[in-house]
């Protein structure tokens, strides 16, 4: 490519991903003919395949990643009067889900890889703490061995927010196999994406899986009998049909994202302190839902990249504890220095599976041009 050539590198790749619609439409036609629209065969098939992907016995399709977290907390008996430990370095939904469960979110600062700092968790535990909710943010995996150690010592349940981390693992053990349950999102912007909102809860526990099956569907044991007052949070059969087509590609999607991230990591390795690649912990299979870095003069860099056609983004300019929604929690600026510092210097580059080699090199060249 000639120097000075302009390209457009969009963040969203949905047009590319669903460019070939015929297979999907064929499957949806078949579904419509059956009228099997709620909790039918496609949902059961998707749950089976998703559980296999995670290497776990049980997966339950629900309405969204947010509802997955609310339902998991509620089914585990976490609610009003309880505290749940998480980090402000996350998408707002993690914290909203804790609040919607009735519990109070308690924050712990993040570490270099944008995940909860395991060294700070124990200090945040009180008599009311019921659970730890680590977020595998950006597709990186929180330090589960150390988090589980604190949890066991203090008698806490661990629920993993794996919404950004389908197919990630640590020490060869997949996310979802550490805590008592893990929650995933199939939102159109996530690594495994369907045509609207959808989520999944995975667990080893047959008892919890049975409870969640009730919680997501009005507590119904059968058509006429209800065991408890639950929710309506079912994975749509239509979304399960889309998911069943896509899930076979999960391995290829993950591998491509990892390969793209490796290329970017290598390209930026010598650019400190202008561009800082976060720590890559050994043994972690980071799946790069977001390829997120730190940069000097971040806002100017992002504006420059956007002008040159590279749709760089900021996730997010305001950490959760400083959001208006978080006011009742009583936190203030300065409480979580790492999270706050990151909100000023992080930026995200496209690293998705449909990125071309030319687009990848163009992005690298533009970042280099900005600092030269
Ligand atoms: C997307 C996301 C959620 C919520 O998932 P939805 O399916 O959008 O409800 C929760 N936590 C994290 C970290 C997410 O990225």
Q: What does this molecule look like?
A:
Helix content is 37%, strand content 13%. It has helices at residues 14-17, 22-34, 41-54, 65-75, 92-101, 144-154, 206-215, 237-246, 250-268, 298-307, 337-345, 357-371; strands at residues 58-62, 83-86, 104-107, 129-132, 157-161, 169-170, 173-174, 181-185, 199-203, 275-276, 284-285, 291-295, 346-349. Strands 1-9-8-5-4-2-3 form a seven-stranded mixed β-sheet, sandwiched between helices. It has a three-stranded antiparallel β-sheet with strand order 7-6-11, with no helix packed on it. It has a three-stranded antiparallel β-sheet with strand order 10-12-13. The protein is globular. The structure holds pyridoxal-5'-phosphate (PLP).
Q: How many helices in DSSP terms?
A: 12
Which secondary-structure class do the elements indicate?
Answer: alpha/beta
Amount of helix: 25-40%
CATH class of the largest domain: Alpha Beta
CATH domain fold name of the largest domain: Aspartate Aminotransferase, domain 2
Number of domains as seen in the coordinates: 2
Low-confidence stretches: none
- Silhouette: globular
Q: Describe the main β-sheet briefly.
A: 7 strands, mixed
Mean pLDDT: 96
Strand content: 5-15%
CATH architecture of the largest domain: 3-Layer(aba) Sandwich
* The CATH superfamily title of the largest domain: Type I PLP-dependent aspartate aminotransferase-like (Major domain)
Amino- and carboxy-terminal Cα gap = 19 Å
Rg over CA atoms, rounded to whole Å, is: 21 Å
Please tally the β strands and state the result.
Answer: 13
Query: What molecules are bound to this protein?
Result: pyridoxal-5'-phosphate
Strand order of the largest sheet: 1-9-8-5-4-2-3
Order of helices and strands: HHHEHEHEEHEEEEEHHHEEEHHEH
